[in-house]
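Query structure, 416 tokens:
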């Protein structure tokens, strides 16, 4: 019954209408219901006056007391679900008498679901919550999303292509249920719980007080407490409150993740980094540029290539090795041409060690990535000076390389 206990007072006329509809749905089990709901019906001012708020709290207590303690398993159970932009909710009842309620906020990834997926997810989560009641017994499933009745209804196998929905359907296949569509305006209970959670998201004063009373826990422990208590706050609310807390900012230490240690070359031609740039516009068959840089001296190499195969890489490295000898290490990204067995065998025969970056981490070969940008900018300037189109880049490549090799490198403060 925690969602009912935590249900905030309505703050607008629309919220008040939802709350009245929810209480009216269970009016048969609340004694003197007309007298008790009268103050809420007549109220026109917000926030609620003290006497109206007291009547609201009394109705919540009455609804909690009307809950079934023991279920008659000879009578069918009814699960009603609903979802809003930031929350999902459900009610479990038997013969229109409440058994249990459920609601919770959606996390950041769940908020990205489509509206239909949120409605479908509300069904899955509520059935997981009440699995001990529902497994092995037929029950009715009521939703205000007609598409969900198609997805979870019988006889629609193979027609749903959404992988997420397919997994949820497989999970629910062990239950016996009938899916019933009911318009949202008639789905009072679940609609009220999900919408009022949504409406209360912007008020963080109580969350800030709770954070203070719990002695300023961090985001993980604070959000765990909020989820355990079914409080109407999202992880974004928790992050916002904690990041704006002056006490936490003043007293809590800041932990910084240290960057990986950079492996530096200690002498010329000890370590080479290489990478491909392309495909590039070209008036020849060479549409790629293999760039290589000496990590110690920043001396650049560049080769126009027709493809990016390992055979091409081996041919270019052979030309360098014939002039300068063997380096100790060669470093590259995880491109297929650099990861092949041919490259490994070639370098192993030459006594050269090979290393690769981690996946999707171009910072690990930052020098050669920087060379790609600098070299192409130099080529573009040379083409512009000679009034040539970009496809003629191969004709100005030697001049561009000579420029980079002979001019000052601002990192080493000397020429390569």
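Result returned for the query:
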């Amino acid at each position: 019954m925690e969602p009912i206990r935590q249900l905030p007072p309505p703050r607008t006329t629309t919220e008040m209408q939802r709350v009245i509809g929810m209480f009216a749905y269970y009016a048969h089990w609340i004694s003197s219901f007309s007298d008790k709901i009268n103050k809420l019906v007549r109220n026109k001012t917000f926030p609620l006056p003290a006497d109206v708020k007291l009547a609201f709290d009394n109705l919540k207590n009455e609804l909690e007391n009307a809950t079934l303690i023991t279920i008659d398993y000879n009578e069918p159970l009814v699960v009603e679900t609903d979802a809003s932009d930031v929350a999902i909710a459900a009610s479990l009842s038997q013969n229109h008498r409440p058994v249990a309620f459920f609601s919770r906020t959606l996390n950041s990834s769940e908020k990205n679901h489509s509206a239909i997926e949120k409605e479908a997810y509300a069904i899955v989560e509520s059935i997981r919550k009440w699995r001990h009641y529902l497994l092995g017994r037929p029950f009715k499933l009521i939703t205000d999303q007609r598409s969900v009745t198609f997805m979870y209804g019988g006889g629609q196998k193979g027609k749903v292509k959404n992988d997420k929905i397919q997994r949820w359907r497989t999970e629910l296949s062990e239950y016996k249920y009938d899916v019933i569509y009911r318009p949202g305006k008639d789905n009072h209970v679940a609609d009220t719980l999900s919408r009022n959670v949504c409406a209360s998201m912007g008020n963080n004063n109580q969350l800030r007080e709770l954070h203070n009373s719990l002695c300023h826990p961090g985001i993980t422990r604070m959000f765990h407490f909020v989820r355990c208590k079914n409080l109407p706050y999202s992880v974004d609310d928790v992050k916002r409150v904690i990041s704006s807390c002056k006490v936490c900012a003043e007293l809590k230490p800041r932990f910084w993740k240290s960057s990986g240690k950079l492996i530096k070359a200690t002498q010329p031609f000890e370590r080479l980094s290489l990478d491909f740039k392309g495909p590039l516009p070209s008036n020849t068959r060479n549409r790629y540029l293999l760039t290589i840089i000496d990590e110690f001296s920043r001396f650049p190499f560049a080769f126009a290539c027709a493809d990016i195969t390992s055979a091409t890489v081996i041919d270019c490295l052979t030309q360098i090795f014939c002039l300068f000898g063997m380096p100790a290490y060669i470093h590259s990204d995880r491109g297929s041409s650099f990861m092949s067995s041919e490259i490994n065998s070639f370098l192993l025969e030459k006594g050269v060690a090979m290393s690769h970056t981690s996946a999707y981490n171009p910072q690990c070969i930052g020098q050669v990535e920087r060379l790609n940008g600098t070299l192409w900018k130099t080529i573009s300037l040379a083409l512009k000076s000679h009034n040539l189109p970009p496809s003629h880049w191969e004709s100005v490549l030697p001049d561009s390389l000579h420029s980079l090799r002979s001019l000052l490198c601002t990192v080493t403060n000397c020429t390569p």
